[in-house]
Amino acid sequence: MGNATIVRFHRTLVACVLLGLTTAAAAQVQGRTVGTLQRHDPAQHRIVLSLDARTGSELGQGAPINLYYDEAKAERDRATRPKLQPGDRVMLDTVKTGNRVEATSVTRLPDTTPGQGWGQYLHGTVAEFVPRTNVLMVDQSETRIRNRIGIDANTQVFALDGTPMRLEQLKPGDEIDMAFRLVGRVRTASKIVLLKPAGG
Hints:
Layout: H1 3-27, E1 28-41, E2 46-52, E3 61-69, H2 71-76, E4 89-97, E5 100-108, E6 121-130, E7 135-140, E8 146-150, E9 156-158, E10 164-165, E11 175-183, E12 186-196
Parallel strand pairs: 3-5, 9-12
Antiparallel strand pairs: 1-2, 1-4, 2-3, 4-5, 6-7, 6-11, 7-8, 9-10, 11-12
């Protein structure tokens, strides 16, 4: 084998190794998903989650997605994992490999409201609070559509661990999730949970 051939072979090998490392590094994407639990399929190690609707300016329930999990890890975490029921509002840390999304942890959110109608949750970012009209402007996650949400004396605010907060502690840019109800024709927040402070 000549020197030129050896050099070309070496360069090709190095390129393949670098490409392999780059592909491996890019193969898994970490993320977070917020939605409403539809069902749990233990036999398939699968959680079926309904996301919020992402069409137009209407809030509602979007199509379900499948999130898989590692059974061995789930077994180890069984003692500390929250007991989940269909309809629970949850946040899952995820890892995406190709088209498969795997859940690595799950948190039952404090805005979970028993009997809450499907589609009456909103995940997004605080745009502003208007004290004069008791209105919280929220940009829906993904679509960035701005929603006008009423605030009244029954609205509760929580930290992610369930600790009560004051509404005034929410700042523009905070990531939140909320359960809302209709008061007349006005969507009014019943429970708000701070998922991630602005810049956090």
